[in-house]
């Protein structure tokens, strides 16, 4: 969740590090700092708040000052409050160090180090790593040997980058459950916690694996794993640096909402034979015999991805006729879940770095087969799960997830149809029809963008509300949950999502003339009429109804609702993708009208890489 950037080379390290940290601001942070090696010594500068606060401290810096090496960090507090003392980098003796993750045995280590004379200046677990590394260097160990000895004493998830004031031409790196990437070009080296930070300098990156330690110099990269020197081949990243910028939109989130027609096509375009209309997921290497052997699927996810998994439940049960349970990864990992060889565990994650999801799928993998839906190539989950269905959504910068959610829905739809064919629950002809529906989806998404101005008007009207209720039935229920989550994430307005049929079991008590009720309705003979009945209950209690639907010109709905957004119909299964778009826009425009930080909501991070 925190941002890491490091540099050694012939340019001034400071602007390179600050620019890299700006590219990682989407991950969320509460403080920032840099350590620079210039003029034969190390200087550390830290500040609470945004990077602008850190930059202010360099206003008087001479243009002639050149730092040949440096490390920078944006922190999201776990151990210790957001204060300047707790901001990274931390130092101990000759070591300056930045770190993502959590050291689980920090209390014991701190007690041991204090007993042996170490003096601590922060409340963080990170400072402990700096003291350990300094201790081993002072005992005479060389770079990688000192890192190896340090890691042997640590328990938990971590990625750290350090440099030694007595050897400033080398960055020392360790990775365990938190991401680290390395980039190189003649005379320069870069290290970061995510690819966008170094994409302006190189598109060939080396992704370190869990358990790797490394020594990085301008003329060498030495990677060691389990005591052996190994080679990690660079991967060529096709993302243009411009892709990770706002592209003329006011916020990353709005840009990413508008990217959905394109990225949804990217998710399925190589997986459908457009001539024959057949879905092909050979990349997963699932045989028909294997799929027929499963009697249950268990989905594990967090946040928005959990909502996607809930929609996936409808896909799998209706199309493939296989039971599908959905569990919060944070709960699943601490239970004793009942799994067997006939169970398939499915993880859904945008980043591939969510700590709870990683632990949940790793636990499941001890008892059953596993598969994951993920967006990020080279992420940690790709090394824990043998089968990955990538969503190909490109970098998602805004903390409020949009295109990741809808591409996850498409990936789950593809997987459900593939299962349906191999299990024999749908015919080849029906599978072809479902594939054709999917090929038409980007056009419907593009048409749906036309609702933006009307959604903005609705958002302005209701931006002063203190509470919202989101309701839906069937596949629309998870969509309502996602709409409520987006609104509360971005605007800090209390919002709840409920199945419409559950209103009488509590939520109806909240409804009055001040309560906006957002209802999501799709074409369905049974559920549409039942939802209309629920709306009568809302209307009779004075609730102000905002309807999102793919049913045009429904007279009773128009009589009940104060505002209606009508969208094109994408069919029974893909309607959730279309119906989600105005909910994303509603959350966005309410946040804009209320002046909150749309791309970086308070207290939130893009990737929750710790518990």
Could you say what the CATH topology of the largest domain is called?
Rossmann fold
User: CATH H level of the largest domain: which superfamily?
Assistant: Glucose-6-phosphate isomerase like protein, domain 1
The overall average pLDDT, rounded, is: 91
Q: How many domains?
A: 3
Number of helices: 18
Strand content: 15-25%
- Radius of gyration (Å): 26 Å
Gap between N and C termini, in Å? Answer: 11 Å
Please report the first level of CATH classification, the CATH class of the largest domain.
Alpha Beta
Overall spatial form: globular
Structural class by helix and strand composition: alpha/beta
Percent helix: 25-40%
Low-confidence stretches: none
Q: Could you describe the largest sheet, including whether it forms a barrel? A: 8 strands, antiparallel
CATH architecture level-2 label of the largest domain: 3-Layer(aba) Sandwich
Major beta sheet, strand line-up: 3-2-4-1-10-9-11-15
What is the β-strand count?
27
Give short descriptive properties of this protein.
single chain, 611 residues, alpha/beta, Glutamine Phosphoribosylpyrophosphate, subunit 1, domain 1, Rossmann fold, 8-stranded antiparallel β-sheet, 18 helices, 25% strand
Explain this structure.
By secondary structure, the protein is an alpha/beta fold. The chain has three domains: 3-175, 4-Layer Sandwich (Glutamine Phosphoribosylpyrophosphate, subunit 1, domain 1); 252-426, Glucose-6-phosphate isomerase like protein, domain 1 (Rossmann fold), CATH 3.40.50.10490; 450-594, Glucose-6-phosphate isomerase like protein, domain 1 (Rossmann fold, 3-Layer(aba) Sandwich). 35% of the residues lie in helices and 25% in strands. Strands 3-2-4-1-10-9-11-15 form an eight-stranded antiparallel sheet. Strands 5-6-7-8-12-13-14 form a seven-stranded antiparallel sheet. Strands 19-18-20-21-22 form a five-stranded parallel sheet, sandwiched between helices. Helix 4 (126-138) crosses helix 5, helix 14 crosses helix 18 (575-594) and helix 15 packs parallel to helix 18. The model has no long low-confidence stretch (mean pLDDT 91).
